[in-house]
């Protein structure tokens, strides 16, 4: 069953010029990009996005990093999309992220994590609604069969 997942490339991805590689990995796996935009997150939006971490020792570091530069927000679609995207992203702890995953190959510090991926279908719905208006998501028809 096709579902959607929210993903966000954090400021370090743009600083390191890695956005194309991240998107390519997700496309190569067969996921369909249905929403994409670059934005500067406000502290207010960051607080809503990270609301579940409020009061934790690392909360302010999350807010500071995510608002430190532009991010690329994305909506991906595919079968079991949340689970698949999280596997491609890899563990949030760089020391546990397997080589071949986005975090395993490009991330070395937890507090400068390279990518965010929704952790459940419910989180995906909430995060997509935070960052995208309904008309910014385009569920296009895949015409690739005619090319192969």
Rg over CA atoms, rounded to whole Å, is: 15 Å
Uncertain spans, ≥5 residues at pLDDT below 50? none
Strand order of the largest sheet: 2-3-1-4
How much strand content do the residues show? 15-25%
Quaternary state reads: single chain
Distance between the termini: 24 Å
Shape: globular
Structural class, by secondary structure, is alpha+beta
List the helices and strands and how they pair.
Blueprint: E1 2-9, H1 11-15, H2 19-28, E2 32-39, H3 43-49, H4 59-66, E3 71-79, H5 81-89, H6 102-106, E4 115-117, H7 121-131
Antiparallel strand pairs: 1-3, 1-4, 2-3
Could you describe the 3D structure shown?
- With 148 residues, the protein is an alpha+beta fold.
- It contains seven helices and four strands.
- The chain has a four-stranded antiparallel β-sheet, with helices on both faces.
- The longest helix is centred in the last third of the chain and has 11 residues.
- It is globular.
- It starts with a strand and ends in a 17-residue tail after the last helix.
- The mean pLDDT is 93.
